[in-house]
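Re: the 190-residue chain
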Amino acid sequence: MDPRSQIVKYFMETYNKGLNTLMGGNISVRIGDSVLITPSGVPKTELTINDIVKLSISGNVIEGTRKPSSEWRMHLSIYKVSNYTAVIHAHAPSIITLYLAGLSLDLNTVSETKAYIRKISDIEFIKPGTQELADEVSMRVRDGADLIVLKNHGVVAVGYSLPEALNKIEVAEDTAKILLTLRLMTNIKA
């Protein structure tokens, strides 16, 4: 499948699975020294392959008439420090809720979490779209994390394909739901 078509497909999947709102989140794929990324301000239900923006690894627009995602710095920073070829950023509600409740994801909660995610890292809130956030996320990726929780914001997953990155977010979201349900059930029994 063409990379642009994959971006449209998997970006819509994040919406259909409740991991992003109509306008939230972003996806990119690295191809050599360039990056294809979702545009800013286009509803997922209206996104087409013609809306995808092609950036150089240094951040210059090579192709496309749209403005790249506001998180383009984060995507490029990840690619500069790793060999990953896919990045997905989602605003997964259960993961956000888990961390707001003072809890965190645990690789040992369910077997799927440990099977698909190598290392989870979390970052205190940093203003979205900033170079500061990009630097912090890329540092975590460089240190081995493949799922980074952005407190009060969302989650970033990296992989060698969009299905791999999306699966990491889905597994993490399911794990967060399990942990939140367990906490609720424990409090009800107390």
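Residues 3-189 form a domain with the L-fuculose-1-phosphate Aldolase fold (CATH 3.40.225.10).
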